[in-house]
Every structure is written in C-alpha cells, then in structure tokens.
Amino acid sequence: MLTNNPRIGHKVAGCWIFLSLFHINLSAGNTGKSSQSHDDLHVIHNNQLDLREIVFILQSQSNSFHVRQAERRKADLLKQAHSLTENPPVVLLLHTLSDNDGDWSILPLLPYLSYSFGKNSSWIVFLEEETNVRMTKIVEVLGRFDKNKEWFLGKPLRDEESTIIHHYAFAENPSSFKYPDFAAAWALSMALVVRLANKVRDEPLKSDFTIDLKHEIALYIWDNGKGPRLTAVPELCTEPEDSALTPSQCATSLSSLLPLCGEPVKKEDIFIAVKTCKKFHSDRVPVIKKTWEKDALFLEYYSDYADPSIPTIDIGVPNTERGHCGKTFAILQRYLSSSVPNTKWLVVADDDTLISIPRLQVLLSCYNPSEPVSLGERYGYGLSQGGYSYITGGGGMVFSREAVVQLLGSGCKCYSNDAPDDMVLGMCLSSLRLPVTHSPLFHQARPEDYARDFLAHQVPISFHKHWNIDPIAVFNKWLKDDLLEKSSDGLKKGTKTEL
Predict the structure, then answer these.
(1) At 251, phi and psi to the nearest 5?
(2) Are 312 and 276 in contact (CB under 8 A)?
(3) Which among 316, 313, 326 is positioned nearest to 421, based on CA atoms?
(4) Which residue among 18, 192, 376, 448 is least packed, with the fewest CB closer than 10 Å?
(5) How far apart are the C-alpha atoms of 246 and 231, rounded to whole Å?
(6) Which helix (H) or strand (E) holds 74?
(7) For residues 394 and 353, is the Cβ–Cβ distance under 8 A?
(8) Cβ-count burial of 149 within 10 angstroms (0-12 exposed, 13-18 middle, 19+ buried)?
(9) Per-residue pLDDT tens for 25-52?
C-alpha cells in the first residue's frame, strides 16, 4: 500500500506535461469547435472553483491498448484546460502511480492522494478511459457544492433485487442503497478523502475479496451511516457522446459502447475450451449448442467422461465439485500442443457461460496477441495486503498464446486439482508481473444480478449461471446479434474505431 512518503509521488512528476502524441478530434466540450465559447469562459471566471483545485484520475490499465486510450483522454482534458487557463489541473493515470497491483481498488491509494493533494486541491474526480468530459460543465457542477464539506458525487446505480455479487446486501430493500456508475465519472471532496485516508492508515481494510468495486467503495464511504451516502448528480451522464439523446446539461458522456480497432479477429484465430463434466452433459451442453457454439470455428468440450455424441474429451483429470484447477491447467497444456489448431487466442469458459463470439471478435481487435494478454472480468483478493488480481472464470477467461506460454513456462501449477483455477492463475500472473486486464463487458453473474442502468450503456460479451433463468432466452435477449454481418445497422452503430 502507498504511504504518505513524498518519494512515492515520483511517478506523477510529469502529470503537467501536455501529451501531443495523439491527434485529438475531440474539442473542448466535444462540440466540434476549436476553442471554448465566451459563455464557457464566463463560467470559469465567475466560478469560485479554480481548475487547479481539481485532480482528475483516469482509472487506467497497463495493457498497451488501454494506455493509448488513457493518454488520449488525458490529452483531451489538458487541451480543454489550456483553452481556459494557463494553469491546468493535475491529470493522473492510475496505473502509473505505483507498482502496487491493487491500486485499481482505489482505497489503498487514498493516503497518497491525501498527502500529495490534500492542502492545495478541493476535489478528486475519477473517470474511465471511455468517459468524455466537458471541462467547463464539470467545474460548474463541482462549484455548486461546498468544497470544505464531505461529498461523494456520482450517477447512482441501484439493485432491484439482492444479488450475490453484492453479498445480498440490503436484502430487505436493495434499491435503498446507491452506488456510482464509474463510467459517468464520480468525485470525492478533499475533506472526505483526507478523513478516509486516515481511516485506511489506522484501520486495515477488512474485505478479502474485491468483486464489484463501485458498490464496495460506496459501502466503505457510507460506513453503516457514519459517512455520506452518494449524492446524485444529473449532469454525470452515460449517453453516447454523439447521441441526439445526450442532454445538453451533461458534463460527461461515453465515447463508445464496444471498441473496434480495425477488422474483427477471425474465427480461426480463436480456440474455445469449455469445461464440463458428465452430470451436465444433458442439460448445460445443449444450451451452448443451441446458442453460441455455431459462432465458434474451433471449440472442444473437456470433461471427466468421453461422450462421442457431443463430443467431449476426457482430459484425464477427475471431476471436482469446486475449483477445477487441474482441469484448467490440462487445457492450457493441450492448447500449446499439436493436438489442437495453433491459434492466437484461447477462451476458457464454463458450461454455463453464455458468450457472444462475434462481439468478442470485435473486442479482441484492440489487443495485441504477441503481448501476454489475460482479459475478462477482474476480481481481487487481499489487494490491500499485497494480494493479487484475477480473471473470474465464469464470465470467460481470454488469454493470448503468449500469456499461456509464459504461464506454463514459469512452472506455475495447481496446489491441488480442486484449487480455484482463476485465483491460482491470478497468483501466477502476479508473480510473473503480468497484467490482468479488466473489461466490464464480461459478467460473472446473470443479467438480473446487475443494475439495469449499468447494463443500459453496455454491449455485453458474456453472462454466467443458469440459476432461475431460461438461459436460451437470456442469450437471445442480451447476446444474440449478427455484429460481423451488419455493415451499418444495429450494434455497428455502437462501435467506434479506436486506433
């Protein structure tokens, strides 16, 4: 964890430098104009909040695609700021602040943020790589709040029913608790940051697992009523930036629903391994065959029993009720052998995973398979105590061939066949200092387990579990489309080329 040591901030010394490596089409406020209007300048000059009082933190990742995205967003923020004032705000990339893998969980960073910016700044604004910001509007919004008081601002999400990903919190009235949609940006007043930083220093963070960070941060701040609840800010929006539905008062919008970085990855470049066992051959496997199997060119079912009617392959590892580490590592070894086609990408899925292969092909166009890429929905274990991140298995784990080569080449292995495969892989990746790359488009749970407004601005790639749902109906509603066959309709409108 970061401490209040001034030397820790050495990586942010360059945060004032304007990035000019990327051509930015996005103008200040995303209006297409080359400079801020007189009205915008009037807002800045007549608002008591100075831009230098705001610290922007991009929740960036170390994968090369995400670095480019974050640097582009940083450059846009600074371009807007320079058109307004000679003294721009601080803009930080989260993944550069330290070597601690757990920084993405935010709370371990608070002591550093308090030490570095507590005296001269009033607000910390967090945003994602896809979050467009209208600088003048953000200043106007923040200026409405007393910066000397504790504020937790954002676009609220609510659970319609208690959910496993939130440990069934507020089971009697799930919608009573609000937590922020990170995609809309969210903000903490420095008064709140300073108090929370002291709490983090004095009281070790208790939770072992980090599952849904936005909900867990809101719980930590609320602290059973001792701290503030999330204050809803209607100007923090998640509509697409080029949508006619985006209200003019919005301070934020989204740049894309599903990134597209060239031609979608070809089917022949993806090998899919489905983990199953004999007792699920008759109920789970038929769901895959009726939904997404047809979209895969190379797919094998790995089981504890060879059934030629499917067919399944006996991978040589006895079935376990939980964990499946032995089976997963046998799959990794088979993937690098001559027994299967030589592909650039490996997808490991459960037999109750629902996934859109066409959408995955689009997403993978943004990643370089020659890099050790491990992609999916990221969870964390013991992040405040030097733990590790991992790709949770149910939503699907995606690996580049290079990642598999380095994992197996390191000697990494299971401590038992029933060890949790996704967590063991996370430990191995952490020991190799290989990044775990998060995409919110993968989901460990069912659509019902996520806030409706959270899914509303997504083009999801996967869901998991058949419990109390019709999985075929869920696939048809959430994941079925002809994305690669459409030239100008449907979801093609939700993609944006990000070179």
Answers:
(1) -90, -20
(2) yes
(3) 326
(4) 18
(5) 21
(6) helix 64-82
(7) yes
(8) exposed
(9) 333 334 333 334 444 444 444 456 899 9
CB 432 within 8 Å of CB 407: yes
CA count, 13 A, side-chain hemisphere, 252: 28
- Half-sphere exposure of residue 256: CA atoms within 13 angstroms, side-chain side: 16
Query: Is the pLDDT at 421 greater than 70, yes or no?
Result: yes
Give the C-alpha distances (Å, rounded to integers) separating 372 from 34, 116, 182.
Answer: 39, 33, 27
**Ramachandran sector of residue 324 (left: φ over 0; alpha: ψ -120 to 50; beta: rest):** left
Sign of CA dihedral 439, 444, 450, 455: positive
Q: Please, what is the angle between helix 213-222 and helix 190-202, to 10°?
A: 90
Tell me if 264 sits within 8 A of 184, measured CB to CB: no
Kindly state the tokens that stand for 226: 């001792």
- What's the pLDDT tens digit per position in 106-139? 999 999 999 999 999 999 999 999 999 999 999 9
Cα–Cα distance for residue pair 116/9, rounded to 1 Å: 7
CA 285 from centre of chain: 29
Q: Are 410 and 433 in contact (CB under 8 A)?
A: no
Task: Tell me what pLDDT residue 245 has.
Answer: 66
426 near 397, Cβ under 8 Å? no
Structure tokens at 439: 């995409």
Looking at this protein, which amino acid is placed at residue 486? K
146, 185, 212 from 136: Cα distances, Å: 18, 15, 31
Taking the CA atoms of the chain, what radius of gyration do you get in angstroms? 23
Residue 5 vs residues 10, 13, 97, 101, 312: alpha-carbon distances, Å: 10, 14, 13, 18, 56
Q: Are 278 and 303 in contact (CB under 8 A)?
A: yes
Distance from C-alpha of 108 to C-alpha of 491, rounded to nearest angstrom: 38
Q: How many CB atoms lie within 10 A of CB 470?
A: 11
Length of the chain: 499
User: Could you read off the pLDDT of 343-357 as tens digits, one per residue?
Assistant: 999 999 999 999 999
- Tell me the backbone φ, ψ of residue 14, rounded to 5 degrees: -95, 15
Tokens standing for residue 321 = 């009720």
Shortest CA distance to 215 belongs to which of 172, 168, 179, 167? 179
> At residue 379, what are phi and psi to the nearest 5 degrees?
-115, 170
Name residue, tokens 């601005």: 457
Cα dihedral value 145, 116, 433, 104, nearest 10: -10
Q: Is 34 exposed, middle or buried (0-12, 13-18, 19+ CB in 10 A)?
A: exposed
Cα→Cα distances 334→19, 313, 471, Å: 44, 11, 29
Q: Model's pTM, two decimal places?
A: 0.88
Reduced to 3 states (helix: H, G, I; strand: E, B; else coil), residue 483 is: helix
Cα–Cα distances in angstroms (integers) from residue 126 to residues 177, 245, 456, 470, 488, in the given order? 21, 24, 21, 37, 34
